[in-house]
Design a protein that fits this description.
By secondary structure, the chain is of the alpha/beta class. Among the domains are: 121 residues, no CATH class; 50 residues, no CATH class; 145 residues, no CATH class. The chain is built from 15 helices and eleven strands. The strands form two sheets. Strands 1, 2, 3, 4, 5, 6 and 9 form a seven-stranded mixed β-sheet that branches. A four-stranded mixed β-sheet has the order 7-8-10-11, sandwiched between helices. Helix 1 crosses helix 4.
Amino acid sequence: MKKKSLLAILCVVLVFTSCGTLFTQGGSAYREGVSQYKSKEYVKSLGSLQTALIKNPEFLEASAMFPIVFNEGTQYYKSIISENAVKETPDEADMVYDAYLDIQQLHQIAKNSGRTGLNTEDFTTEVKESEIRAIELRFNYAENLEATGDRENIKAAVAHYEIVKRRNPQFPDIDQRIEMAVKKANRTLMVFGISENDDFHNQINAFLQKDLAKDRFVTLVNAKDFQSKSTNKKAAIAWGQQNNIDYMLTVRETKSFKTIRNSEEVLLPSSTPIFKGNKVSHGFSTQYKLDYSLIELNPSAEVVAQDVLQSDYTSPLFTYSYVGQDEMLTKDMSFDNTGIETYRYISSNVDSTTLSNAVWGLKSDYSNVYIPATITDPTSREQWELYYSCIYHSLDSLVKNEGGNELAYGLELVQDSNTGTYYSLGNSPFESIQKAKVVSAMFNSKTRTALNLIESEEDKFYDSFDLDVATQLGNYLKKIF
């Protein structure tokens, strides 16, 4: 009957949690206590209920739930203690210790509440005894691991010794035990870098020195300690063996940079594709490799691991399309008594409407060329190059903002071969000559800027040290050591 009564009370409590306590003083702490109760966080739950009752001593739901949490929590922690007390492993001993800590706090909250009808106890002695037992079991476990002589077991022993130290900093000789175990598990490593870059040996050493700085179980020999004494792999191995180094890592760096230039025939303009043209793309690809071998410096210098770490990259392509000069014709003509000039033109026999739309597209491109105020002579390729070099410092940015142009390179007129009529790409035939010069200067300078940036990327690539690939190597060493 008593169990049925408690169950009924609990059902009422949980119903009220969702509706009846929203605007009740102390309701927030009460609802938090219910949530903690559901998660079996009995100490926190009882503390939240006590907070609710301090704020609102007449809080019926909190009063009803208080003994439920206390009794159920007591039983819960005692069950943990009973199940694990006879087990002789450090983790189970910790569970017993933690359970005693929790039950002691639970009963202390109940005592402090002053509420009657609660069978409270004092577990101070049990807390202390279970703590001592947990520490001793863990220390003994660490000793047994260390005694195996296996490096991984010794590393695990260090972790257990350090738990002992955190629990009891005054545990006899614990600092010395940790130090001795670390020394037993420690391995010395020297790195021998091979590359066309004279500084690679120092770069890879410096990087790994920093990357492994927090690893207590590996000591990386400083590069300068053996660099001057060994000029090749064989000599480096001999030096390591003579100086009782455990391992040597040989790392060979290779780099490959390839320029990309693609060309394909297209019809221009893309909106009305009737004229033969070319689409050209410029870019580059890189390959960075680290070939490594880990050698145990025993008498036979045995290779225990080797692999290749590689990074490949292909840049975005700077593309542009133009009507090729091979498709252009030239003719000396005079328009509106402006004098004879040599005009470059392309010809088509498509219908007049289609041709008119194509001319309009080309003419629009000519008219919309943006000329910055810093360019005083828009026909000067040198000024355009200077302008673009100041704005763009990477191929990516040039591609993003200037790539994909379709402009007729050096073109001034378009002929309708059906009628013999010539269409100017400027407001007048003579103006189209000036427009063509501007477009040609701009077009050439963009291309030259792209090529310059690719050359710059090549220089940087061969001078660079790929940190991402080196990080992969560092992560591998952490797993090994």
